[in-house]
């Protein structure tokens, strides 16, 4: 203490411990008092307005957004960081787009930036080599060790049936979060067609987007009832007319092109989405067949190798869905969606996103 006082009296700068010890983004957001701090977090994009963060096509090197998780999409949980000129070539996202998802530490003054919680007048940057591993689902699947086939299916059902259920109205806002366009936080990505569309255009008019039940709600006759009818592990945004074109068709290869849905095909008894999401669709169907086993007042949903299943609680074709999952494995977008549903909404997971190898174990 005496050394510190003497050095201070002699004019030597002493860095406060609050600046030297990194704090979390959430702490920084709550401490917008002008003090100097070093903040540690994951780069999640570039702020371009108070409530807008882009994740691609970065306009310049002047700012970035930090969060405590690389999967964060809500701007209220982000810290907007001003990149001063000395650091733009090394930490600006236009010049260094590979920083997205990496952990860094930044020192600066805690204060509003873009009229948003921020870190300004930055004096130091470091890091950029560590990616966010995301939530560790290891303990979530305790009890599945060594199990295969029907025993594995039963164990997984017991785990994922423990969930928070949403109302059908709550699904609207949940999908605006889970299916947010990574490049434009004002939009969602439509599942089958792949179009990026304004979140505010949800509804029932032509070219609006609505809530598509990937496991068609007539297959088991559960409608929009709280439970399978509101389970966002299989509800996705889709163009109203494309949703109608899919209807309650089973899934299979072949058919004719579907209007407004590039890469999609359909015939009288089946539908195929664009190739980029066929695995996603398959894993949603496998989830439903495990989650709903006829034990909670709803039908026992199962897979078969048929099409034209109608109102029976079946979905096909199993062999095609298995092939789709193998050809299109889980990507970062699908994994992030699973994490958001688990941490924010239903608090359960789709096990076939975490462990796609379990598909062939349960359905050999």
UniProtKB/TrEMBL annotation:
It holds the Pfam family Endonuclease_1. It comes from Kribbella turkmenica. InterPro entries: Endonuclease-I, His-Me_finger_sf, YhcR_N. Residues 1-19 form the signal peptide. The lineage of its organism: Bacteria, Bacillati, Actinomycetota, Actinomycetes, Propionibacteriales. Residues 24-126 form the Endonuclease YhcR N-terminal domain. GO terms for molecular function: hydrolase activity; nuclease activity. Keywords: Hydrolase, Nuclease, Signal. The keyword Signal applies. This is Ribonuclease.
